[in-house]
Amino acid sequence: MTAPAPAAAATVYRPQEDTRLLIDALSRLPVRGRRVLDLCTGSGPVAAAALRLGAREVIGVDSSEHAVAAARARSSSPTWTTLEGTVAEFTHPELFDIVTCNPPYVPAPSDPADCRAVPGPAHAWDAGIDGRAVLDTLCRRASDLVAPEGHLLVVQSQLAQPERTWDLLHHNGFHVVKAGFFRIPFGPVIRARRGWLIRRGLLGAHEPGELLTVLLARRSRR
Ligand SMILES: C[S@@+](CC[C@H](N)C(=O)[O-])C[C@H]1O[C@@H](n2cnc3c(N)ncnc32)[C@H](O)[C@@H]1O
User: Fold this and answer.
1) What integer is the mean pLDDT of 101-122?
2) Which of 9, 81, 165, 210 has its CA 20 to 30 A from that of 188?
3) pLDDT at position 210, please?
């Protein structure tokens, strides 16, 4: 994950390679006519893609009021709603055919008990000491949100142990496959933490860049 451009840094995450990887994977699913939930929606690029791909209804959720305002500003469709909320707390009376998520996933030396307490733009990428503050919640809550035989798409860095996401989802009744990956150069956030990440065993000393992975998890029939 690279830091956003200075103009956007004060407010909302600017769509990057992780966003594009998630949209690529989404475009290979049968989206037309489906109900889509986009968690950690930011300014709404993944939600907008779902709508373009023919989703019947899209709900975006983000914990940042600035992100929610940005997503609402770009959506004129009555079938696209953006709500302020967290992955831990979001509930809905109906389950979704497709859930997408580009969560914060960068390991950070500080580990606030509540991820909403991460200040400033880092709220979009810092995710606790192992980078899994939101990912673990997502895995735990996946079957509260995804319909039987529905899909969850989640993008993350190798720094936050995709194999753990895989195991947790598998344990919770999902069949998981890798739907995409892409290596990017280390951005300023990772470069600044490189020594700390290597000492913690989260990054190899000779890693040439950050590996992003999208996992596709299909919920089994009830
Ligand atoms: C990596 S950005 C992704 C934004 C957008 N989906 C994109 O790809 O451009 C992560 C987003 O998650 C939001 N976020 C952080 N913690 C969250 C939480 N616990 N629940 C919901 N959203 C959260 C941040 O405000 C940020 O907008």
Assistant:
1) 78
2) 165
3) 96
pLDDT score, position 68 = 96
Name the class of domain 15-185+211-219: alpha beta
How does pLDDT run across 90-101, given as a tens digit for each residue? 999 999 999 999
The DSSP letter of residue 26 is H
Provide the 8-state DSSP code for 145.
Answer: H
- How is the chain split into domains, by residue range? 15-185+211-219
Cβ–Cβ under 8 Å, residues 43 and 4: no
User: What tokens were used for 2?
Assistant: 């690279």
Tokens of 134: 């939101």
Mean pLDDT of the 94-116 span: 86
Residue nearest to ligand 1 atom 20, measured at CA: 86
Give the Å distance between the CA of 205 and the centre of ligand 1: 29
The confidence band for 8, taking pLDDT boundaries of 50, 70 and 90, is very low
Q: Looking at ligand 1, which residue's alpha carbon is closest to its atom 8?
A: 19
